[in-house]
Amino acid sequence: MNAKFHPALKAIRDGDLEKFKALIAADPSLATSRSTHARSHRCGKAVAGKGAEINVVSGGFDYAGTGLHYAALNGHRAMVEFLLAHGADRSVKDTKVNSTAAGWAEYGGHPELHELLR
Q1: Please, what are the domains in the chain?
Q2: Which residues touch 73 (CB under 8 Å, ≥6 apart)?
Q3: Which residues of 3-24 are buried (b: 16+ CB within 10 A; e: fewer)?
Q4: Is 11 in contact with 67 (CB distance < 8 Å)?
Q5: Rounded to the nearest 5 degrees, what angle is found at the Cα of 48, between the Cα atoms of 42 and 53?
Q6: How confident is the prediction along the chain (118 residues), in pLDDT tens digits per residue?
Q7: What are the residues whose beta carbons fall under 8 Å from the beta carbon of 115, sequence distance 6 or more?
Q8: Which whole-number Å values give the CA distances from 46 to 61, 95, 103, 104, 116, in the listed order?
Q9: Measured distance CA(62)–CA(50) in Å, rounded
Q10: In this structure, how many other beta carbons lie within 10 angstroms of the beta carbon of residue 2?
Q11: R_g (Cα) of the chain, nearest Å
Q12: Four-residue CA torsion sign, 22, 95, 118, 51
């Protein structure tokens, strides 16, 4: 994966919604990375009004899920709600274990997010 995507993914994993919004506002391409698997999961809704696609799985071994997957895994409710409000698709499955964000929330020990994402 191109290193330019790391700050946005880190913001999602850390639940830093303000940083994520600022990064996407500055460079909407941060949310448009595509893997071959993800091409069928693209969504036309914009993140923060910038035209970024949020239902993609970034390429690379360490990035098997969408931003919604990582926000759910780490228990970041505000980030999950933001992503859902901007078109994140809760039915997209990751590329490693074929699970949705709800499954990642359950695995991460966040039953309230698991319920929200089901």
Answers
A1: 3-117 (1.25.40.20)
A2: 13, 65, 104, 105, 107, 108, 110
A3: eebebbbebbbebbbeebeebb
A4: no
A5: 10
A6: 567 777 887 888 889 999 988 988 888 777 554 432 332 233 323 344 444 566 767 665 566 888 899 999 999 999 999 999 888 999 999 988 999 999 999 999 999 999 999 9
A7: none
A8: 26, 23, 25, 24, 21
A9: 26
A10: 11
A11: 13
A12: positive
pTM: 0.70
112: tokens are 């309230």
28: exposed, middle or buried (Cβ count in 10 Å: 0-12, 13-18, 19+): middle
Amino acid at site 111: P
